[in-house]
Amino acid sequence: MNLRRYLILGVVALSSALGDTFMSIGMKRIGPVPLSHPGELLSALQTPWVLGGVLLLLVFFASYLTALTWADLTFVLPATSFAYVALALLSRFWLQEQISTARWLGIALITAGVGFVTQGPAYTPRHSSDHP
Amino acid sequence: MNSGPAIAVMVAIIVLTATAGDVFMASAMRAVGDLDRIKAARGLRGAIWAVVSEGRFLAGVVWMALSFFALLFSLSHADVSLIAPAAGSLTFVSNALAAKYLLHENVDRRRWLAAVFVCCGVALLKH
Question: Cα angle vertex B34, ends B24, B101, to 5°?
């Protein structure tokens, strides 16, 4: 693991959290979309917040796939779960939502989990024939 | 439809399809190899082609789509405050099991601890 790869893991986490936040803001401004009018979801894509959210989620997907080329799934998933913490902090300080004690405890547990996994090796060497 | 067993089945389907998606995606990207090298040799278009022409990547996309629609279906029958943390947290554990037995990753004690901590943390975040 080098600095660039840690940065990619950071991009995975932040783009996911920011993408979800953008989508949340955009969809709250649009209001409930009835199941009988699914086409309204397409018009939601024309709003800046939702479009920004989709672009950020594309960044997330590209960086997530990149990370999987040099790290194990059981490394990438916990390491990038910092997105949940970022999302909670964005909700608290940007969207002004309240965070309960249980949520702060959850944030602490996730941070500990990220700390555990990033201290270990990222990659399991294997034969190319190993696949599901 | 909102009974305990029905919700458990819906959560199980979300978890299983999400895990299948992650496992196929991880397997595909491992098979593709270092994207930086591919990009240097064949350009961005070549790197994108290397990914999308990998069969396991397409299988991963299909499973992820199934998981997404299973989530949407379950949200129309049960509260998001129940479904999202249950499915989100259990997926960390199921992924660790699948990665160990299907991808043959070295899931040591450190990784198990991380999966369990994140699983509990995600469940608590929704309170």
Answer: 35
Encode pLDDT of A51-86 as tens digits.
Answer: 999 899 899 999 999 999 999 998 998 888 888 888
> What is the rounded CA–CA span in Å between residue A2 and residue A17?
23
Give the number of other Cβ atoms within 10 Å of residue B44's Cβ. Answer: 10
- Answer whether A74 sits within 8 Å of B51, measured CB to CB: no
Run of H or E residues at A119: none
Q: Where are the alpha helices (DSSP H) in A31-126?
A: 39-44, 48-68, 73-79, 82-93, 101-118
Q: What is the largest CA-CA distance in chain B?
A: 55
Cβ–Cβ gap B99/A74 under 8 Å:
yes
- In our burial notation (b when 16+ CB lie closer than 10 A, e otherwise), range B3-30 reads eeeebeebbebbbbbbbbbbbbbbbbbb
Element (DSSP H or E) covering residue B122? helix B109-125
Name the residue facing B125 among A103, A128, A130 (closest C-beta): A103
Determine the residue of chain A that is closest to B39 in CA distance: A66
Quickly count helices (H) and strands (E) in chain A.
6, 0
Q: Which two tokens stand for residue A64?
A: 């997530």
pTM greater than the 0.95 cutoff: no
A71: left (phi over 0), alpha (psi -120 to 50) or beta: beta
Tokens describing residue B37: 């090298």
CB B115 to CB A66 under 8 A? no
What is the ipTM, given to two decimal places?
A: 0.82
Residue B58, CB half-sphere, CA atoms under 13 Å: how many? 6
